Amino acid sequence: MDMSSRAQRTMLQQAAGEGRATDNFMGHLTKGEIVIPVELQTPELLSELAEVFSESGGDIDEFTVGSQKNKINPKTGQPEFFWTALATLAVGALAVNESRKARRQAQRQADAARKQAAEEAAAVQQQLEAQADAQRQQAEIARQRAEEESARFAAEKAKLEEEAKKRQEELEAAQREMGERESARLRASRRSGRRSLLSQARLSPELGLGGTGTALSPTAQTAQMM
Predict the structure, then answer these.
(1) Per residue in 120-165, pLDDT tens?
(2) Single pTM value for the model
(3) Which residues contact 51 (CB under 8 A, 6 or more apart)?
(4) Is there a contact between 42 and 36 (Cβ–Cβ < 8 Å)?
(5) Around Cβ 155, how many Cβ atoms within 10 Å?
(6) Is 80 helix (H, G, I), strand (E, B) or coil?
(7) How far is residue 92 from each of residues 46, 56, 58, 85, measured CA to CA in Å?
(8) How far, in Å, CA of 56 to CA of 50, rounded?
């Protein structure tokens, strides 16, 4: 390394220390390259970038400022970040882009399918709940009707039993009255028959009542006993 190169490096190192804010490195960059500040480097973004570099045949550490894997320009001693295989980069970037598109499309389709399945499941669940509510309402109506029918049947049964009991009592009363009347009629008839026989026995000598102290005939005795 000649004196001019050594002096150039020293000057560039001094210039690097003149950076503003947290900038303290210098390097060789290509127009259009994007530098991602540390504050924006989320784990998700770094994972995506590492995947892109890996699928393109590169190493993300080689393009991370301050990494031991940085390429160093032999003349300036500063890191440089050019891509060593531009064709590979183009093909790899295209493949990565298509792969990412396919993954995103598949993810969107999967999300849409899950959403549709969830909506269909919710609709089915809602329909089942509506059917269950309708069945419960019908069962409640049927139960109320059954209770009403049972109460009406019990009331009619009690009414019929009361009417039957009343008719039975009336029938028994009528039968007792008829029995009493028949018994009274028979008693009256027997008394009338005895009086008639006694009268005939006294008036007719043929009945064995010829005089005072004469014994009654068997027919008169029977009539008298009645």
Answers:
(1) 999 999 999 999 999 999 999 999 999 999 999 999 999 999 999 9
(2) 0.34
(3) 96
(4) no
(5) 10
(6) strand
(7) 18, 4, 10, 10
(8) 10
